[in-house]
Write a structure and sequence with these properties.
Number of helices: 6
Structural class: mainly alpha
Distance between the termini: 67 Å
Shape: flat
Helix content: over 70%
Radius of gyration: 30 Å
Largest sheet: none
Oligomer: single chain
Number of strands: 0
Length: 194
Amino acid sequence: MMFSLLILNNFLQLSKLLIWFLLFIGYLITIYDIYYWVFGAPYNRWISALLFPLTRIVWSTSTATLIWMCITGNGGFINRIFSCKAFIPLSRLTYSVYLTHAWVVWIYWGSRRDLVDMNNLSLLTIFFGVLMMSYILGAIFSLIFESPFIALQSILNNYLRINKTQSNDIFNQKSNINGMKDLIETKQLCLNPN
């Protein structure tokens, strides 16, 4: 019995390592799927037809597996990174930033009158500028539109919860009254069988 538990434990540990290895390989495949074309390899339509949809499936499967590993308690240090309290304000702004970042990018590229210098510093400057402006606009968007609806939802939840408890109390009182009537009738039948 103890030997079989030891084998099962070793198998589970090896399967966790295998899953983490496959996750790592899956993310590498999705990052370096266009590696050869970037460095001038000739275009091959068969590889492209396989690689383009396959990388989407591999990325989504890897991400779902990573989330599953973190939920089941096998995330290790990645779970500790994702569970950091510093991400809470950013996570609340995520949807607003998603809705508004296209406006920031559109305004930025629409207002440019010169060519973009393609060195690392200028691209990083553009990236962080657009990122900061997206989060600022997302925070404003969240305060104006999202927060009032969350407050309204909270008020409605409280109102419905109060009404539900009141209706449950009334139902319980009615069932208690009916139960008492049944008890009285049963006692009367026991005392007066005729």
